[in-house]
Amino acid sequence: MAEQNQGESKSAGDTGGGTAQAGGVPATVRVAGALVALEGAAGLVAMVILIVVGLNGEAQSAKNSYLTAGYAAILGGAVLAAGLTLMRGKRWGRALATLTQLLLLGVAYYMFTSGRPEFGTPLGLLALGTLGALFAPASVKWMAEGYGADAE
Fold it and tell me: How far is CA 62 from the centre of its chain?
């Protein structure tokens, strides 16, 4: 773990041969981090809405609304943290960000095939765009540099 943290510190200041920005973190990683952070923030907004709906008595079951809000808080918070850490140049957020995008692709497919393409299409494009940024050549090279590997 200490070796990984040293690699993160080294790559944040010393590019060691070729990332896209002077800070060592490629723009593709920062863009992916921003998109993932946006998704996490949307999860936290959903949490607030679920709590308000439960308090107003508009939910079919207030208990279910609160439980779902708790679930949204945990997931939204974790995804937001992953996005922010990617934006700061930490590598651990990439795995959670990738998993989130794969899950969102499944949700987008379900929406699209359930007669709601107006929701499924933008969500699918967002997930694909974020995956593209996470697996862009500059992102993969940056990720590999953190573990002392040469990604060519």
Answer: 29
Q: What is the pTM assigned to this prediction?
A: 0.79
Which amino acid type is present at position 80? L
Tell me, letter by letter, the H, E, C secondary structure of 81-116: HHHHHHHCCCCCHHHHHHHHHHHHHHHHHHHHHCCC
- Alpha-carbon distance of 114 to 120, in angstroms, equals 9
Handedness of CA 35, 37, 42, 46 (dihedral sign): positive
pLDDT tens digits, residue range 97-126? 999 999 999 999 999 999 999 999 999 999
* Residue 16: count of CB within 10 angstroms of its CB: 12
